[in-house]
Amino acid sequence: MKQFDQRVAVITGAASGIGLALANAAAARGMKLVLADVDKAALDRAADALRTDGSQVLAMPTDVSEPEQVQALADAAMAEYGAVHLLCNNAGVGGGGCLWEMDLDYWHWVINVNLWGVVHGIRSFTPLLLEQDEAHIVNTASIAGLMSAPGTGPYTVSKHAVVSLSEMLHGELKAATGNVGVSVLCPSFVNTSIYSSERHRPEDPANPPDAATLAEREAVEALGKAFFDDAGIPPERIAELVFEGIQAKDFYLLSHPQGSREQIEKRMRAILDNGHPGVSGAGDFPIQL
């Protein structure tokens, strides 16, 4: 995809972090925006700021785990602009812990957003992209989709699935048509608020979190913020990487090229040598650029 000006970009998870950076980068290139996020207040703030800067913005609160809501987003985009050229399936949540200790509701929440959200986006928007002279899909996975660190459970499982899904989508679209490109974004540590995503986890009204649970959540968020503020790269850098990758028709987009390649090579070597996984925990995720 070479032209961005006056084309239409749909971005999920657009109220903060990488999604907001993608929205700003798309706006800077003259694109019309369709922004979705489960956090309505943050989404409204982001949309208002972009409109103040002169961008055309349709903002729609959307839970990507619900197929009806994603389809409604696609319908609204077509009603507003009549076309979609760029789809960023970016919405995602964190999720870690010991595999056998996490309850099923936790597993379902993470996988429903991180994997099913991408599936719903592909199903609702790909037919619209196929109608354009050029278009592109960017699925946000993670370096966790290319390596497996104990303690990152549902998150890593979901991101491996997004990488595989994107690889299959690339092959199927290449066979079907040459006008829709695909990229999978696999960042390592980025300075976003993904560590606080559990705030948006649906709660059981009959079993709300108690004071101890809320206190633990706040403590985890404080630790996460301190770490990501120190080690994470700016999301704006990721957004520029994405748009450069779209123009170059790159498929795998790595935010930490050196550190990521080292981990990928380590994993592939273990597979080819009939070895064992060599990653011991979240601390093995690349920080080195």
What is the total tally of β strands?
A: 7
The Rg value, from CA coordinates, equals 19 Å
The level 1 CATH classification is Alpha Beta
Total helical segments:
8
Gap between N and C termini: 27 Å
- Categorize the overall geometry: globular
Domain Ketoreductase: 7-193
Protein name: SDR family NAD(P)-dependent oxidoreductase
InterPro entries: KR_dom, NAD(P)-bd_dom_sf, Sc_DH/Rdtase_CS, SDR_fam
Family: Belongs to the short-chain dehydrogenases/reductases (SDR) family.
Quick recap of the structure?
This is SDR family NAD(P)-dependent oxidoreductase. The protein is of the alpha/beta class.
Could you characterize the architecture of this molecule?
This protein has a single domain (8-284), classed as Rossmann fold (3-Layer(aba) Sandwich). It is built from 8 helices and 7 strands. By secondary structure, the protein is of the alpha/beta class. 44% of the residues are buried. It has a 7-stranded parallel β-sheet, with helices on both faces. Helix content is 49%, strand content 12%. It is globular, with a radius of gyration of 19 Å. It has helices spanning 17-28, 40-52, 67-81, 104-129, 153-176, 211-231, 235-248, 257-272; strands at residues 8-12, 32-37, 57-61, 86-89, 135-140, 180-186, 252-254. Strand 2 (32-37), helix 2 (40-52) and strand 3 (57-61) form a beta-alpha-beta unit. This is SDR family NAD(P)-dependent oxidoreductase. InterPro entries: KR_dom, NAD(P)-bd_dom_sf, Sc_DH/Rdtase_CS, SDR_fam.
